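1st attempt posting a full record on here, be nice pls
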Amino acid sequence: MKSCTILGILIMFLAGCSSNSFSDGSSGNMTVGMVFDVGGRGDKSFNDAAYHGLEMSRDSLGVDIVYIEPTGEGADREAALRQLAADPAIKVIFGVGLLFSEDIAAMAEEFSDKYFACIDYQPEAGKSIPENLSGIAFEDKRGSFLAGALAGLTTKSGSVGFIGGMESNIIKRFEDGYTDGAKHVNPDITVISGYIGMTGSAFTNPAKGKELALGQYAKGVDIIYQAAGLSGLGVVEAARETGNLVIGTDRDQEELAPGYVLTSITKAVDRAVFATVEQVQSGDFQGGQMNVFGLVGRYTDYVYNKNNASLISEDVHAKVEKLRQQIIDGDLVVD
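the predicted structure (as tokens):
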């Protein structure tokens, strides 16, 4: 729900924070809170997947939900997390995105009676993860390897592209996995890479994403893999305009440009959120560690269905499935 409730207003008043807080439900059940990454809901990607996990938890587990939209570049994440942690009704708090890592670890130590979870958590070197914090990660490099393999087996020009949002270690893993996968199946392929920027705002600039994509397509690239959050919508639009292909990320993005989305590398952020809430309810919270959701169980996966089957031949699909199983079995190392 987008309507601001008394609970949301009260939280904002007590914390004095500029973020927009919303609540859905006041049944007296356990309440789960979430602070979104830059771009907020409506990105058709990372944040929307996380919110779907909240909805699943509300509808299937009976919890109430509260969420906070970011402002600007999300610089107020510490204050937003504190808003939620200070409310006695909220038991579980999620930070959506690697940029939360340092702040959410500090909050977990300060509020030891709460449970915290961070999507794409990046532990600080030399420091242990608090026992009440679950670091959630996905096998993004392995998924990106499969994206590269699909691109390498499908390209007609012999040149493919990558566009990342914020130039960072985690997005670099997407690029490296994609490049490795493309070259594994097509050693002579050319891979052109670009990034939107160096700060969190790089995930919120569709115009820049489109500009970079148009530039790559003009150089002969016919498939671009984008890992750029909201900025990736511009890459998708460039694919549609030029008649080329794009590979989406985090969620199935086929609906954004039917016929132009070769596949999407999905991270089941929604299922990870749901599983974490379920763990808290059952008393089996897995804190103090990294919890990786990977190719096994298809928590990290690529989309192949009736919507894109015309773009991916049966032969290519079979080859990529074989690579996927080789990675799971350890016969093909992608780390």
